[in-house]
Amino acid sequence: MALLETDKIAMRFGGLVAVSNFTLALEDKEIVGLIGPNGAGKTTIFNMITGVYTPSEGQILFCNVDITNKKPDYITKLGIARTFQNIRLFSSMSVFENILVAKHTRLHASPLSAVLNLPKYSSEMKKYKAECLELLEAVGLSDLTYEKATALPYGKQRRLEIARALATNPKLLLLDEPAAGMNPNEAHDLMNFIRQVRDNFNVTILLIEHHMKVVMGICEHIVVVDHGVTIARGTPAEIQTDKRVIEAYLGVDAHA
Length: 256
Prior knowledge:
Layout: E1 4-13, E2 16-26, E3 31-35, H1 42-49, E4 57-62, E5 65-66, H2 72-78, E6 80-82, H3 95-102, H4 111-115, H5 119-138, H6 154-166, E7 172-176, H7 184-201, E8 204-208, H8 212-218, E9 221-226, E10 229-234, H9 236-240, H10 243-250
Parallel strand pairs: 3-8, 3-9, 6-7, 7-8
Antiparallel strand pairs: 1-2, 1-4, 4-5, 9-10
Helix pairs in contact: 3-6
């Protein structure tokens, strides 16, 4: 049984077809790349998987649960977390606070318990604070625990955003262009970090990325979309020589 299955999902905005007949099966602990030219529908696919959009057609199963029409908070609690193309850290919060806020998705104490600081809430928060410190140690940010999040170098801000997603205890992690804006050294560090995240946190990773060195360097399988349609899928070696992929990216006839 696949961890995530999308069965012929489609997304239409009025007369515009953003994604058509998209099918994907992700296995446990895979790293899979979702690539394609700008406007190909990649982020729309992420938005359907995470409940931001409800597919116009098709079905999405996660851990054999139908999440096609579920809300983002339900999907997060079920075990899917994501990052965004543009970093969305809480700018007024510290590194630690950015991680801790993600733990609220796992709170069992009632809002009233939180307001009154009752024992159940206090006990849960003590546990989650300890887990946050352990997580910061695991991702190499413990020396920056109480720094303002937006004061971090760009590469570490990306790492913090991924760590915040991990704080929700996901089984599936969706990364939307994690290498965007990075220099070669930062991109190399990111590749190692993503592998460590998969291995140390036992998560499956689906990533959108335009940085081909990152995609080819860490992905075991790649799916290519163009104008909302899947045009290729395979190993990095297969994708690199696929004529349809070359045409989509270069805009020329691959036979030329």
